[in-house]
Amino acid sequence: xxxxxxxxxxxxxxxxxxxxxxxxxxxxxxxxxxxxxxxxxxxxxxxxxxxxxxxxxxxxxxxxxxxxxxxxxxxxxxxxxxxxxxxxxxxxxxxxxxxxxxxxxxxxxxxxxxxxxxxxxxxxxxxxxxxxxxxxxxxxxxxxxxxxxxxxxxxxxxxxxxxxxxxxxxxxxxxxxxxxxxxxxxxxxxxxxxxxxxxxxxxxxxxxxxxxxxxxxxxxxxxxx
Length: 225
Prior knowledge:
Blueprint: H1 2-32, H2 41-67, E1 75-78, H3 79-96, E2 101-102, E3 110-114, H4 116-133, E4 140-147, E5 150-156, H5 187-197, E6 201-207, E7 211-218, E8 220-222
Parallel strand pairs: 2-4
Antiparallel strand pairs: 1-3, 3-8, 4-5, 5-7, 6-7
Helix pairs in contact: 1-2, 3-4, 4-5
């Protein structure tokens, strides 16, 4: 059991490292072409990816403190800015796969409370999965909005629907429902864990023959005008 737990923790670290490195490499390739300025959005994305790598060390320290009974307090942040960051990080991946990417406007007064970097990593995981599995040329949508007493963040794709019975197991560590084994099967497990750590839920709605919608549900907050 201890060996299994350690293996999963190592897998999580490798998975997140690879995601940050993948985004950094895409950004660097775009900058290397000379077609985009270093001071623009692509340069900022590269900087954020490198900061994310550094953040992994800080999160490891935070995990040690949490186990010692000194957890870090949550922070409140703008939902619109949060979605904008996810959009900017994911846009290069969408472009690399030739995938249309739609992000409706977000109410600027809406906010959520939690570990911003963990939740952002969870959302980017969902988007990367969507780009990976949606049918060529089909649209992926990122939509964040308030519904009742919750903030909902939807990631919708057109993958054709999920394999039979995979919905029940897809959030387990190392679960893979596709013949594509380029990943570790940890992204959804990590994402759900991060969302639940901040009092939210992560679920999926399957539409056989069409696609699926992953939904993060989080307690809302309101920013001061």
